[in-house]
Backbone:
């Protein structure tokens, strides 16, 4: 696991309340990069099914990235590896679930 900005963004995104696989996929299809999801304005998210104002607020919530850092730290401590959706090692079959 490389501790990169992209990893940090993916972990932070996974911590957003109500960010399930369907919502994630909609955002991924719209923006193509996690960093762009975090930069999105509310009007950029309008019209996306399953994406609400509360999700936009969560994306902008203070402390979200600190929580992500904490989760990454726990994984490193346990010698666990986090494999993100954009990682070539991420199983194709999991990408197709939703």
Residues:
């Amino acid at each position: 696991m490389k501790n990169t900005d992209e990893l940090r963004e993916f972990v932070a995104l996974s911590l957003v309340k109500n960010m399930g696989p369907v919502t994630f996929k909609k955002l991924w299809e719209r923006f193509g990069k996690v960093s762009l999801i975090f930069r999105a304005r509310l009007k950029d998210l309008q019209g996306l099914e399953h994406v609400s104002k509360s999700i936009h607020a969560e994306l902008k919530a203070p402390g979200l990235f600190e929580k992500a850092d904490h989760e990454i730290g726990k994984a490193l401590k346990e010698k666990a590896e986090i494999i993100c959706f954009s990682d070539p090692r991420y199983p194709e079959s999991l990408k197709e679930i939703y």
User: Anything to note?
Assistant: The chain has a mean pLDDT of 90. Residues 64-77 form the longest helix (14 residues).
